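Project outcomes to date are best conveyed with an example. Our students and postdoctoral researchers have been running inverse folding experiments weekly, and each run begins with a structure described purely in tokens. The record below, which covers 142 residues, was selected by the lab manager from last quarter's runs and is presented without edits.
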């Protein structure tokens, strides 16, 4: 596995790829600090804290093309953990992340009350609207 990871890192360097996942778990009062420190290259942003859904505009100001997964209510370890296990396994195996089948598979492994409070990127209407609005207004994307 170490040799595979080393080859992957060399491939990323050679092709100037900087894959970045930003994860915020824990209390919501630290969420804005996480956003302040996140990379502008973040492609997947997981806001698993209470009400992380309300920070999508801040996230998109930092990384305009981020795929945001956020909780509308209380973040739960019983939901966060299966998400990270599945995401890590898919990425480790070199699979693309197609959110609709990913979310179906994730839902099967996170059968916990509160799952419906997590919003996948393809249903995150706030993020979709903000991205479309900025594009229509001719705002430069980061």
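After processing, the design step wrote out the following sequence:
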């Amino acid at each position: 596995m170490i040799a595979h990871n080393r080859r992957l890192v060399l491939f990323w360097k050679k092709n100037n790829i900087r894959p970045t996942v930003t994860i915020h778990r824990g209390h919501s009062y630290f969420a804005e600090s996480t956003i302040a420190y996140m990379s502008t290259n973040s492609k997947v942003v997981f806001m698993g804290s209470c009400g992380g859904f309300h920070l999508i505009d801040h996230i998109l100001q930092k990384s305009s093309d981020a795929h945001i997964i956020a909780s509308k209510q209380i973040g739960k370890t019983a939901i966060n953990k299966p998400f990270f296990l599945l995401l890590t396994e898919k990425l480790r195996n070199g699979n693309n992340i197609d959110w609709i089948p990913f979310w179906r598979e994730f839902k099967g492994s996170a059968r916990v009350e509160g799952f419906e409070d997590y919003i996948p990127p393809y249903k995150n209407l706030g993020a979709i609207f903000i991205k479309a609005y900025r594009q229509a207004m001719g705002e430069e994307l980061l």
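The mean pLDDT is 82. The longest helix spans residues 77-92. The training component of this project remains on track.
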